[in-house]
């Protein structure tokens, strides 16, 4: 770590550095050692595996990793990141986006880790969803430790903290009961025993029998049961569970969605009751679907991780997640092309930037300051326009066009472009081509297209994009259009079938003058 970089990081306004500086303030002399060994700064992310993981789930791990990386630039203290799955939670409703719903309905209320997998691939529903999340986190290259609530409850790692909950039972009730309605207060318990009869996580009042032994008593279908809360025989209400986890694990940093602000407040109070210190963190805004509704695992609205990666790169997804974390953003298919191109714009700018500017560049945080080599000679938007007019395009055909536009254009020379071509073909096929409707030119548009055709016919086949753009621009200025925008819109709508499009000089050079003249002829024939 260079002195220049550390000095810039200490002053950077980029949000990961602002968050990381909270941890420096938390431990100005370093985190106190345990058992003579350096105690790592502990970052945590949480995941409820009641439904398939979506981009919001990935987003929390990504953003937390960015803060962790930023902390490494500020301090040499060791760190850990735990991705915690609350798979002891009882299934409250059947998700909309899974098979075998009738089977799941038979297990409502049971811990997610004790419910059969509706997909039939894992030992439990939680195991299936956990595996889906871990697979993507692993593919992306995150450094993390996966933690299962079921495992931690069962193997005793929470025992001391669970006993502390019983010892401070009334104080925890004093925190929670004022936040609840009358009906909820009547049955609320910080501890949720697992029924020995039905296996359901019960929402019933409990009596603390022996806090030091971990014993409680409760009513289970008319029978009074005395049972330990250790060994996976109970779990905690999630706000209490969250606080207990912070204390048991020594969590120093955890962010949460804006919808959990009140929950963070209550859990922080309970954490202090248990003798702990709440972690640092911030509340990010939520991702919204195309209708402006919050993305939900159970509904399956919004985009899945797999969907994004069918049409856009992992780096573009990380770019989208980095930008403006405290601003609500719509998350739908239409934003993928822009995210791809904006990522590359910032990546292209990075090498020439000063250190201070680099630390505010999203790609610095996406790649932790070590950017891959490689350039992108055409934009993703231009690729989309090309494949859309080509119809059923193959990667080989696209490379054929690129060879006329980019010197030495081969998949070997531009491997990342080769990957983007695959994304462009898929996106163009599924989302662009079905929407294209080319209209006939009207009024001055017809004469302008005829003039463009004549000008193109006079050019050599290898004419560059700038020469062609100058011709397009001049026709727009002198062709009788009220504004240049009207001319460009006419080109997009008559030649490409869309209301918006690329820089036409670049598109014509890429698609080829002869092919572009054919598009003009087809438009004039309508």
UniProtKB/TrEMBL annotation:
EC class of this enzyme? ligase
Which residues are recorded as binding ATP?
A: 297
Q: Where is this motif: 'KMSKS' region?
A: 294-298
Q: Where is this motif: 'HIGH' region?
A: 49-57
**Per its UniProt record, what SUPFAM superfamilies does this chain match?**
An anticodon-binding domain of class I aminoacyl-tRNA synthetases, Nucleotidylyl transferase
According to UniProt, the reaction catalysed is: tRNA(Lys) + L-lysine + ATP = L-lysyl-tRNA(Lys) + AMP + diphosphate
Identify a single GO molecular function assigned to this protein.
tRNA binding
Q: Where in the cell is it found?
A: Cytoplasm
Primary subcellular site in the record, as a coarse category: cytoplasm
Keyword match Aminoacyl-tRNA synthetase:
yes
Entry's Gene Ontology cellular component terms: cytoplasm
What are the BP-aspect GO terms? lysyl-tRNA aminoacylation
Q: What is its EC number?
A: 6.1.1.6
List, alphabetically, the InterPro entries matched: aa-tRNA-synth_I_codon-bd_sub2, aa-tRNA-synth_I_CS, aa_tRNA-synth_I_cd-bd_sf, Lys-tRNA-ligase, Rossmann-like_a/b/a_fold
- Protein family per UniProt: Belongs to the class-I aminoacyl-tRNA synthetase family.
Q: Which HAMAP family match?
A: Lys_tRNA_synth_class1
Q: Report what the protein is called.
A: Lysine--tRNA ligase
Question: What is the species listed in this Swiss-Prot or TrEMBL entry?
Answer: Sphingomonas panacis
